[in-house]
Amino acid sequence: MNESNQPWNILVVDDDRFSRAVLRNALEKDGYVCREAKDGVEAVEMYQEQPPDLILMDVEMPRMGGVEACRRIRELEDSFHVMILFITAHDESSDTIEKAFAAGGDDYLLKPVNLVVMRQRLGRMLEHSALMRRILFQNDMLLQMRQISFDFLQERNVQQTLWRVLQQSLRLTASALGAVYLLDEKENCMRLAVQEGMPMEPVAACIAKGRHMVGRAWEQAEPFFIDDYSLWEDRLEGSCWSKLCRMAALPLTRGGIVFGVMVLGRNREQGEFTEARKNVLTQLADLLALVVDNTRIMEALEEEVKRRECVQREVEQTNGELSTALTTLQQAQSKMVQQEKLAGVGQLAAGVAHEINNPLGFVSSNFSMLQRYVERLCDLIHEYKNTLERLEAEVGSQELVGELRDKEKNAKLELMLEDLPELFEETKDGLDRIGKIVKALRTFSRVDSIEQFGEYDLNSGLDTTLIVARNEIKYVAKIEKKMEPLPVIQAVGSQINQVLLNIMVNAAQAIQSEGREGQGTIRIQSAQEDGWVRCSIYNDGPPVPEEIRHRLFEPFFTTKPVGKGTGLGLSISYEIIVQKHHGEIFFTSDESGTEFVLRLPIVQPGDSGMAIL
Asked: Would you state the pLDDT for residue 51?
């Protein structure tokens, strides 16, 4: 039932007669009143004749489809509170659904229609429609009452004021008849002051306390409502009121004392007084009591209204400030946790780099000196061998030469001479690798420009991050790289590297969680798009569960066991890429694996040379 206690009116629009019949039968069983249209043209015409509360509309129809019909209905006045629920056979990836929403649709159902889902969806949408109608009605009432208050503040004639207030009350509450009684203190009764609406037939000019509706409202000092006045035992016989069905009597009070009563009546076909209209009546009675009072009280009322409006603005402003403060506090908390985490990683990386760099310095120096020594030793040995060959040719030196040859064989001189160049080459390669690790750690952990935009090479960042994460990855996955040449972009390199590390480590841990025997695969690709650089990091681990995908970028949400994750990695990654670098980060996941995609603009909008706040 709607707010007028009438069944909800639903328009079913479908070119298939059988489908319309099925939907109509199901809806009428639930107590809805249904009408049918076979296409969009009929739907628009029927809407103009009598707007429904909700339209259940097929998308594909002859003459005029549902999307076009929806667009035309939305162009009509006061159509926004009418809910439009589309029915379509298109899947969720189709652009038809997007067009339906763009035309003004509120929701959709997929064919074949699940009646249980439809009932739930209809109930929710009709509740929303009713709420919108109540809000609009109350806003309209408040605006009109405010205008009434302004007009009446200029009025100094009580009788004229009563008549004007009564006229406005009849209009705002859609009533057929109204009257205002004022207290006659001398006769101790309520005396008729003004009457408006139905033909002026005689009514009781003076009513005692406790008698009829007026006397009851006076005695109880509270609003008094009757649903069927014709059956009420204490009605005023022989008056025009006996032709009415629903009646309302509202006391007019001043300082807690009733000084008048306003009476309003409605015909049976006009329906009962809804709660919203009862509230309006109560407010109108209060307003009438105020405007009948003297000028001083009216001025005080105006000041009170202004004060309440000011308080409301202050409350709204305070709420806004509290909301902003809460958001700032949450962001600061998240940033503090991340900075602490980054500081720990940075200190570890810097310490390792320092420890490696110290021995690397003297090893490199000693290695160079050793290489020169060995080169000279090799030259000397070659001279020695030449001399030895000459001695072999001289008589009497064979025995000495033989001893030297035996010593050569025992010392494996030839083998050492063959191995020395290879050993030096391998040692040099190892030293170069140590140097690369130190450079990568220094680059990853640098803190001198952690909040400053600068030139950044995404491919270089990927390589650096792979070196840092190598120990986490090498035992569980093999790396496949396909990186195209990329331009230098504007970014905070240390922050982008942190995002890349989060995603790579998550990929390795996802593969490891399966407990597979062999290694998995992590595939890294980069490319340039129009004004953007793009990189994707794919792993062939298990897919992300459907029910948690929408929460992956929420702060403090993690799927890892307690103590294994903070739930900040992807949240901070989203903040870095989207909010600070004006880029995009998203993912896709299915049975074959999960792929995270990062897109960053080559040039940041605005002045990118400023520090991030």
From this structure: 87
Dist. CA 404–CA 410, nearest whole Å: 10
Count of Cβ atoms closer than 10 Å to residue 73 Cβ: 23
Q: CB of 270 within 8 A of CB of 176?
A: yes
User: Strands 54-58, 9-13: parallel, antiparallel or unpaired by DSSP?
Assistant: parallel
| 222 CB-near residues (< 8 Å, 6+ apart) | 251
Point out the least confidently predicted range of 74-83, 214-223, 410-419, 465-474: 410-419
337-346 pLDDT tens trace: 456 455 545 5
Residue 596: CB partners within 8 Å, gap ≥ 6?
503, 507, 536, 537, 538, 585, 586, 587
Nearest CA to 14 out of 49, 51, 60 is that of 60
Question: 279 in helix, strand or coil?
Answer: helix
Structure tokens at 159: 């009788």
Phi, psi of 562 (to 5 degrees): -60, 130
User: What CA dihedral angle connects 220, 221, 224 and 230, to 10 degrees?
Assistant: 60
> In this structure, are residues 87 and 58 in contact, taking their beta carbons and an 8 Å threshold?
yes
273 versus 103: which is more confidently predicted? Answer: 103
Task: Look at strands 246-254 and 257-266 and give their pairing.
Answer: antiparallel
Q: Residue 374: which of 425, 435, 429 has the closest Cα?
A: 425
DSSP code of residue 504: H
List alpha helices for 95-114, DSSP H.
95-103
> pLDDT at position 180, please?
86
Strand pairing of 83-88 and 107-110? parallel
| Paired residues of 521 in beta bridges | 478
Q: What pLDDT digit, counting tens, does each position of 238-252 carry?
A: 566 666 677 888 888
Burial of 395 from C-beta contacts in 10 A (0-12 / 13-18 / 19+): exposed
Residues in the chain: 613
Instruction: Name the β-bridge partners of 182.
Output: 191, 260
Sequence letter at residue 513: S
Alpha helices in 394-479, H assignment, sequence order: 398-411, 413-445, 458-468, 470-473
pLDDT of 279 reads 75
- Residues ≥6 apart with Cβ < 8 Å to 575: 334
Integer-rounded Cα Rg, in Å, for the chain is 43
What pLDDT is recorded for position 523? 95
> What's the CA gap between 168 and 172, in Å, rounded?
6
Buried b (16+ CB within 10 A) or exposed e, 556-594: eebbeeeeeebbbbbbbbbbbbeebbebebebebeeebb
Contact predicate 204/239, CB 8 Å: yes
Q: What is the per-residue pLDDT across 387-424, written as a single tens digit (0 to 9) for each?
A: 777 776 666 666 766 776 776 677 666 776 676 677 67
pTM value > 0.85: no
What does the DSSP 8-state code read for residue 62? Answer: S
